[in-house]
């Protein structure tokens, strides 16, 4: 074999497209369904979500999977060879474009939330809706609220997860730039920032309300970065955290302990008392509490332990790749569209449940209707995406021009 062939062979191996990991789309789709159930009031399906088995909920899963997807999708653009060939803007622009799309979606969902709850008050006499989900400022302090909404300072309940995600994608290029070169430096810096956020209560400000964002991006960046690094390593065909029997046992034991903490009548109060003693001893509150805004240690470690255990089980990969769960993978592939659809449906659910308070069958049927609508939206989105790809693809009969790239540059592609 010639020297040229030896140089090109590894490059061709790298160009082979790996099959899509079914776990990523399936678990992201499952997280979106759980968010819909948790945000739709008083429905029996809430007892099926992950928040019933531990301290974390679908939000942590959403950030982990979003980080993994970002690492897989964008990290290749930040490799030195790719930047040398196509430039830095080619790497940065898709992430900033996605961040802008998330921002626009946030504004749209906020407007829909105001309209839906106002419609419930006008047409069904549900005036209490006007004071829920942080809407009071919109109707009693309209001028300042309308300043805060586009600045992301005034966020409504159930419509407050995308701002943090948008901010994290905006600074994501810097994280990936460091992550592909010094992954453990990035992890250490992210952990230090999370710890500092808890110590000094660092957060982005609300306006016109006091306080900070419910999903504090300065704290939640830690779990996003862990997902991001996982995606970067998967892009290389590696694991961020290798499989280890003792680590698997430790994670599984922590999950069992958290379950006992939640439901055993003696053990739970005992553990809560120990946490209060640690707080009195001076440990930071993001270690000794269950605070969601600052992603306290019990929530963080529960989410990471669950993710690690599931990632080590081969049958999970096989199960998520089955035809029976193809609907979850479909939901995951169209994550933003499904999230927006589910958010609107959950907000409508507040009005429907209030207007049909006596009809208890509604709480059973409406979530099922919501699942159907989310799957339909994802299916239509998938059709549109495939159609766009076909339209953008070059004609099959068109001859491909011979690459003018020298062998060394070909190896870098």
Model description:
The two termini are 21 Å apart. Mean pLDDT is 91; it is low at 2-16 and 403-413. The protein has one domain (19-387). 69% of the residues lie in helices and 0% in strands. α12 packs across α15 (297-312). By secondary structure, the protein is an all-alpha fold.
Overall number of structural domains = 1
As residue ranges, the low-confidence spans are 2-16, 403-413
What portion of residues is helical?
Answer: 55-70%
Cα-atom radius of gyration: 23 Å
The number of helical segments is 20
SSE ordering: HHHHHHHHHHHHHHHHHHHH
Question: Average pLDDT across residues?
Answer: 91
Instruction: Specify the biggest β-sheet.
Output: none
Q: What coarse outline follows from CA principal-axis ratios?
A: globular
Distance between the termini: 21 Å
Structural class: mainly alpha
Give me the count of strands: 0
What is the percentage of strand-forming residues?
Answer: under 5%
Summarize the structure.
The protein has 20 helices and no strands. It has helices at residues 3-15, 22-39, 58-74, 80-86, 88-124, 136-140, 142-148, 162-170, 172-179, 183-200, 217-235, 245-263, 267-280, 285-288, 297-312, 314-320, 326-333, 335-355, 362-392, 407-412.
């Amino acid at each position: 074999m010639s020297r040229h062939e030896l140089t090109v062979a590894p490059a061709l191996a790298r160009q082979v497209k790996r099959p899509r990991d079914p776990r990523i789309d399936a678990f992201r789709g499952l997280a979106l369904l759980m968010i819909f159930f948790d945000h739709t009031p008083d429905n029996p399906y809430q007892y099926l979500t992950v928040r019933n088995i531990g301290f974390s909920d679908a939000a942590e899963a959403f950030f982990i999977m979003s980080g993994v997807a970002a690492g897989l999708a964008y990290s290749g653009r930040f490799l030195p060879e790719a930047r040398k060939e196509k430039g830095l803007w080619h790497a940065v622009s898709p992430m900033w474009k996605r961040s802008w799309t998330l921002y626009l979606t946030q504004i749209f969902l906020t407007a829909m939330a105001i309209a839906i709850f106002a419609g419930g008050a006008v047409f069904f006499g549900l005036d209490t809706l006007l004071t829920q989900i942080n809407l009071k400022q919109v109707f009693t302090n309209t001028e300042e609220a309308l300043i805060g909404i586009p600045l992301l300072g005034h966020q409504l309940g159930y419509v407050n997860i995308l701002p943090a995600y948008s901010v994290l994608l905006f600074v994501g290029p810097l994280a990936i730039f460091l992550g592909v070169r010094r992954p453990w430096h990035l992890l250490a810096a992210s952990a230090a920032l999370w710890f500092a956020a808890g110590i000094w209560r660092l957060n982005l400000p609300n306006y016109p309300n006091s306080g900070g964002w419910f999903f504090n991006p300065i704290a939640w960046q830690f779990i996003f970065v862990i997902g991001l690094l996982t995606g970067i390593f998967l892009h290389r065909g590696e694991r961020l955290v290798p499989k280890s029997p003792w680590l698997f046992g430790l994670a599984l034991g922590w999950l069992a302990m958290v379950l006992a903490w939640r439901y055993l009548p003696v053990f739970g109060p005992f553990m809560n008392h120990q946490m209060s003693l640690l707080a009195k001893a001076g440990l930071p509150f993001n270690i000794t509490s269950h605070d969601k805004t600052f992603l306290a240690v019990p929530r963080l470690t529960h989410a990471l332990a669950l993710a690690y255990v599931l990632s080590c089980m081969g049958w999970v990969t096989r199960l998520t790749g089955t035809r029976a769960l193809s609907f979850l993978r479909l939901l995951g592939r169209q994550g933003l569209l499904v999230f927006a659809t589910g958010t609107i449906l959950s907000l409508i659910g507040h009005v429907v449940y209030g207007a049909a308070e006596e009809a208890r069958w509604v709480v059973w049927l409406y979530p099922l209707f919501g699942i159907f609508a989310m799957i339909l939206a994802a299916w239509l989105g998938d059709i549109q995406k495939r159609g766009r790809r076909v339209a953008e693809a070059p004609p099959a009969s068109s001859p491909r021009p011979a690459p003018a790239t020298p062998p060394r540059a070909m190896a870098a592609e």
